[in-house]
Amino acid sequence: MEKSVETTLLDRRSIRRYEREPISEEDLHFIREAIRNTPTSYNGQQFSVIEVSDQDIKLKLEEIVGQKQMKTSARVFIFLADYNKIAVAAKAKNLENPGFENTMDGLIVGVVDASLAMMSAIVAANSRGLGTCPIGYARTADPAAISRLLNLPQGVFVVCALAVGVPREIPDLKPKQSEDLLIFPDSYGTEDMAGKLLDYDREFTEYHATRAGNTSDKDWIGEILGYYKEGMSYKMLDAVRAQGYGVVK
Ligand SMILES: Cc1cc2nc3c(=O)[nH]c(=O)nc-3n(C[C@H](O)[C@H](O)[C@H](O)COP(=O)(O)O)c2cc1C
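^ thats the input. predicted complex w/ flavin mononucleotide below
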């Protein structure tokens, strides 16, 4: 099943329950090719992807990360910021490597490249009727354990994982912020931002209370701040330093 670009983009939602069905080789090939053709900073391709199909590794990932999509989806793609490959290439050619990964922008570049590659995979998979769910906890839950499990060298860290598989359920689409809160004409801002955000908060709270499947009484603003509160305890600077990112400026 091939969907139009419009349906692929506007009908996408995160899928957290999967059929135990394989993905066709043709669809996998398309996803890999879409990943390969991702735009990247300098065409440096500061990313790599680990495609996990081994059920034992998926179970270990689920154990570390605590997200069940990692064992129930057919594939887990792990998107990595990667400065190992350029280090290997520079060494092979006897060229001096300035160590761009030790700068804030170098780190951002790796994260942006890996994120765009993940979006390429999301669009490709969804266009073939497959479901996807990004899994950020693959980065934050236990970076040292994930690095050991996946044998990550210096210069490489997990940006995000992506579960891909045949959907077992199609949840309701989540309401998103209105266009005027997201896309500003010519310069930053919109009139009555607070009022519009409170309108969105009400809309989202209503969606939470009435959506198919598991309803919730949480509001949007409170839920997001709750996630941030949890995120305050993550030790990502230590984690990227352990993977060889000096981040000195
Ligand atoms: C970088 C990133 C990390 C995410 N991490 C998780 C995750 O660990 N677990 C999860 O269930 N969903 C995760 N999500 C999915 C978001 O919850 C989801 O995109 C958001 O609620 C909007 O819903 P939608 O994708 O259905 O539009 C993540 C999404 C992104 C972009």
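The chain is about 50% helix and 10% strand.
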